[in-house]
From TrEMBL:
<dbReference type="Pfam" id="PF00120">
    <property type="entry name" value="Gln-synt_C"/>
</dbReference>
<dbReference type="GO" id="GO:0004356">
    <property type="term" value="F:glutamine synthetase activity"/>
</dbReference>
<dbReference type="InterPro" id="IPR014746">
    <property type="entry name" value="Gln_synth/guanido_kin_cat_dom"/>
</dbReference>
<feature type="domain" description="GS catalytic">
    <location>
        <begin position="190"/>
        <end position="637"/>
    </location>
</feature>
<dbReference type="Pfam" id="PF18318">
    <property type="entry name" value="Gln-synt_C-ter"/>
</dbReference>
<dbReference type="InterPro" id="IPR040577">
    <property type="entry name" value="Gln-synt_C"/>
</dbReference>
<dbReference type="InterPro" id="IPR027303">
    <property type="entry name" value="Gln_synth_gly_rich_site"/>
</dbReference>
<dbReference type="GO" id="GO:0006542">
    <property type="term" value="P:glutamine biosynthetic process"/>
</dbReference>
<dbReference type="InterPro" id="IPR052725">
    <property type="entry name" value="GS_Type-3"/>
</dbReference>
<protein>
    <submittedName>
        <fullName>Type-3 glutamine synthetase</fullName>
    </submittedName>
</protein>
<dbReference type="InterPro" id="IPR008146">
    <property type="entry name" value="Gln_synth_cat_dom"/>
</dbReference>
<dbReference type="InterPro" id="IPR022147">
    <property type="entry name" value="GSIII_N"/>
</dbReference>
<dbReference type="InterPro" id="IPR008147">
    <property type="entry name" value="Gln_synt_N"/>
</dbReference>
<feature type="domain" description="GS beta-grasp">
    <location>
        <begin position="84"/>
        <end position="185"/>
    </location>
</feature>
<comment type="similarity">
    <text>Belongs to the glutamine synthetase family.</text>
</comment>
<dbReference type="Pfam" id="PF12437">
    <property type="entry name" value="GSIII_N"/>
</dbReference>
């Protein structure tokens, strides 16, 4: 804790201040609720901490004495801050996190000492720290576990530090980041796969560097990630009146107001006061938990916002992202708001993504994707660039699986997110470098109108305004339509949905690039032969080979254009707009070989379970949405429409009885009837198709059920919605049974 500050008394009402009344700096608060490795070093005897570090580096196993000492130190540290319980915090395949709280309080019987009473102690043993036992049959297992085979284990992930979170009444809980496995050791979670992939890419990258630059002595390479998180914040009162939002996370009906995002005035605009308060509360909690949030701003859609942290090691970045999402739920509730993470909560305006900025760093602190000033001469960078290009080229279908959800089908390619065809954007300058290397010619200079002539590596732009300084130009422009873009010293994977865990996508990126690195390393070793060292021409020959191989995946244009669809098909790039079709990639020999044989990331059983879980989740999502929409139409929209029609008929009848002109009412009735009849018709068809899919769900395979759900329910949802929106456009606002888009998106 930080001196005598009143942080716990603020409860999010104001930024903490010290005893002198001055604001506490964020750097002073950073990580105060984390049992960090620095904190462990303070609490543990030196030999014990040294033993733990050996285990962390994979050089030994964690013995009982060390585990007991760490558990005791963590408990005392947590209880001194108000903790009463501990929990193993893990990431089942549900897209969120899970936890089961156990009290530190224990009873010690005294009958063994001749007494007849028990006494209470607070304790956390090493064995309790290392593992716990949740019910494995109650989480998605993809058929790996039967209902009667319930035993599973959560195992402490020593690479991620423990932390405490505040609960009700100021009490705290000690969180132990964990992996989740079955009784037989299969991965039932997202984190185990991610941790395996980080070891795989470290091994592949260090072998590559040892071949390319043996004098550098790199012993470890780490995947680093920055996760940009988009989301909507809406008034909680409006949210509670929308059953579709509450049940499915997105609106199933609703027409756009006359003004939404078309003026482009919300993006980077002034953050609304209640939202700014919410984000400030979030940042305070996040800083205490060691989450380095850096950026906050309005996004394109009304009521849409984004936050982004500093880059971290991949597994920790994922932990922090999922923790941030949970924190935002809490602080938004505190401020009368509701956070929406669905990929497409509102039709007609931009949906929300989670951009994965991915790179690789050595234990010497070097970013392997830093092009430096002269990338044309930086052979290590060019070869690493080729590894990413080849990985994405060879395994684009696998990366497509990793971002495929029912929500993504409404967002991908919908004017604000990359489409279902995977390509890579490099930018003019880097493309020129690759072209020049391939063609074995000098680099061209770029002539920029009004500005100086620049070459690749030169970056100044003269603004021709005396008081303004020259600015640094990035190596590449940005292409918001590209699924994967090089953005200076990293690759940005833009297609992940806002509500998805990033673990699986990052693991698959690691796997794809690892496989490519293995191929490149093999070619480098072949070129090396018996020579003591690779020559420049050896390296360039390998680079040219992979430039040629990966040309189809490179695209610098508009990914939304219809011409790109034709061009991509001619290049042989897969285009799988629906989820069930994309999941089939997990059945192909290429993917099975990669993940189960070439790289030890997913066993055949685990891979099959993933296929099962993805299809099952897709079907359940569509069934939940379809049943919800059927209920909304039957119980809210149609009754409101019938009531409105009755009012019109009553009015027309009354006017007719006094010989008044009722032409307007008659015209309104006549124009309203077709939409009402059509809505009743398509709603009835939706109900019939729900029954068909549910019957298939009981007797068919997960694959056939997901396919039928896509072919029937997906399109029914669109058609029923279309008719509902026509009704909403006609019916008086006072008679519409739920908050409109205007009320939800434009109310703070």
């Amino acid at each position: 804790m930080l001196g005598s500050t009143t942080k716990t008394e603020n409860k999010g009402k104001m930024w903490p201040r010290n005893e002198k009344g001055k604001a506490v700096y964020p750097s002073e608060l950073f990580g105060e609720n984390v049992f960090s490795f620095k904190q462990m070093a303070k609490c543990l005897p030196k030999p014990t901490f040294a033993s733990f570090l050996k285990q962390r580096r994979g050089k030994s196993k964690l013995d009982k004495a060390t585990a007991d000492a760490i558990a005791h130190a963590a408990r005392v540290w947590a209880m001194d801050r108000g903790a009463t319980h501990f929990t193993h915090w893990f990431q089942p395949q549900t897209g969120t996190t899970a936890e089961k709280h156990d009290a530190f309080l224990s009873l010690v019987p005294t009958f063994m000492q001749g007494g007849d009473e028990s006494f209470a102690i607070d304790a956390l043993s090493g064995s309790q720290l290392l593992q716990s036992e949740p019910d494995a049959s109650s989480f998605p297992t993809g058929g790996m576990r039967s209902t009667f085979e319930a035993r599973g284990y959560t195992i402490w992930d020593t690479s991620s530090p423990m932390f405490i979170q505040e609960g009700p009444n100021g009490t705290m809980v000690l969180y132990i980041p964990s992996v989740f496995i079955s009784y037989n050791g299969e991965a039932l979670d997202e984190k185990t796969i991610l941790l395996r992939s980080t070891e795989v890419i470290s091994k592949a990258a260090t072998e590559f560097l040892a071949t390319l630059e043996p004098e550098q002595h790199v012993s470890q390479v780490t995947a680093t990630v920055g996760l940009e998180q988009e989301f909507f914040l809406v008034d909680r009162r409006m949210y509670t009146l929308r059953n579709d939002l509450k049940i499915t996370g997105r609106t199933l009906v609703g027409k756009l107001p006359p003004r939404h995002q078309q003026l482009e005035d919300h993006y980077f605009g002034k953050i609304p006061a209640r939202v700014l308060k919410t984000l400030s509360d979030l940042e305070l909690d996040a800083i205490k938990l060691g989450i380095p949030l850096k950026t906050r701003h309005n996004e394109v859609s009304p009521a849409q916002f984004e936050i982004a942290p500093v880059f971290e090691e991949a597994s920790l970045a994922v932990d922090h992202n999922l923790l941030t999402m949970d924190l935002l739920h809490k602080v938004s509730h505190r401020n009368g708001l509701k956070v929406l993470y669905h990929s497409k909560p509102f039709k007609g305006v931009n949906g929300s993504g989670k951009h994965v900025n991915w790179s690789l760093s050595t234990d010497r602190g070097e970013n392997l994707l830093d092009p430096t000033v002269r990338p044309e001469n930086n052979y290590r960078f060019l070869l690493m660039l080729m590894a990413v290009l080849k990985g994405v080229h060879d395994y684009s279908s696998l990366l497509r699986v990793a971002i495929a959800t029912s929500g993504s089908e409404h967002r991908l390619g919908a004017a604000e997110a990359p489409p279902a065809i995977t390509s890579i954007f490099l930018g003019d300058q880097l493309s020129e470098v690759l072209n020049a290397v391939e063609e074995q010619r000098p680099l061209k200079n770029f002539s920029v109108p009004q500005f100086q002539s620049i070459r690749v590596g030169g970056t100044l732009v003269d603004l021709k305004v005396a008081p303004l300084p020259n600015i640094a130009r990035d190596l590449t422009d940005r292409n918001r339509t590209s699924p994967v873009a090089f953005t200076g010293n990293k690759f940005e994977f833009r297609a992940l949905g806002s509500n998805q865990s990033p673990s699986f996508l990052i693991a698959m990126i690691n796997a794809a690039v690892s496989a490519a690195l293995k191929d490149i390393t093999a070619d480098l070793k072949a070129a090396l032969g018996s020579k003591p060292k690779l020559t420049a021409e050896d390296k360039l020959s390998v680079i040219r080979k992979y430039i040629n191989i990966t040309k189809p995946i490179r695209f610098e244009g508009d990914n939304y254009s219809s011409s790109w669809v034709e061009t991509a098909a001619a290049r042989g790039l897969p285009n799988t707009p629906d989820c069930p079709s994309s999941y089939l990639a997990l059945k192909t020999p290429q993917i099975k070989s990669l993940l189960s044989s070439t790289l030890p990331i997913l066993s055949p059983t685990e891979l099959e379970s993933r296929f099962h879980i993805l299809n099952e989740r897709y079907t359940n999502d569509l069934l939940i949405e379809s049943n919800t929409l059927h209920s909304i139409v039957s119980q809210q929209v149609l009754p409101a429409a019938y009531s409105y029609r009755s009012k019109l008929a009553t009015s027309a009848s009354a006017l007719k009885s006094i010989s008044a002109d009722f032409t307007p009412e008659k015209l309104a009735l006549d124009s309203f009837a077709p939409a009402l009849i059509k809505l009743a018709e398509v709603t009835e068809r939706l109900g019939a198709h729900i029954s068909e899919v549910e019957a298939e769900h009981k007797s068919g395979t997960v694959e056939s059920t997901a396919d039928k759900a896509r072919k029937l329910l997906y399109f029914d949802l669109l058609e029923v919605r279309s008719q509902c929106d026509l009704i909403e456009a006609t019916i008086p606002d006072v008679d519409w049974p739920m908050p409109s888009y205007a009320e939800i998106l434009l109310t703070f």
